[in-house]
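Same chain as my last thread, 172 residues:
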Amino acid sequence: MSTTAATKKLTHIVEYVLYVWQMEDVVRATQFSAETIRAMFQGQETPDLDWLLALSEKMKVEHLEEKGHVSDVLEVQTELALLHDLLTGPMEDEVYVSSFETAQPVLREFEENKMSTGLRHPTETMLTALYGWLVLKMKKEEVSLETQAALQPIREMANSLARGHVKVYQGK
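reply #2:
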């Protein structure tokens, strides 16, 4: 039986990164308590429970108690940045290039208004914007129509990047 993370990693790499970020936040919220994490699964032993406990341990080993992301997901983020550069460069994937060009002004605006200074790769800005939106939805906070509309090109870019990932890394 596969884990939710493994399934997402195979089918939609951007969703995988966002899922791991979310689970890192869950682990931090439990203060790394294996007992609390087990309680979330109501006594059922599942591959997802084992995966989450392993994530918790990895976060402790990598000293990510306060912030940051596990090395596994950082590698995927680097892979996504390289894939972006490949799809906008040598491979010239027209669908991805178009989705990126449409999202680029929104990404720039998001970076200027919401992120700390420093040059970021467009895929990092994309992930951060999508995660911020996901957190708002999980908190059941109001997401304005303007914000939802602005996020649409970013979501399309993410979906296009995920399709490119399947093509390039899974040979499909």
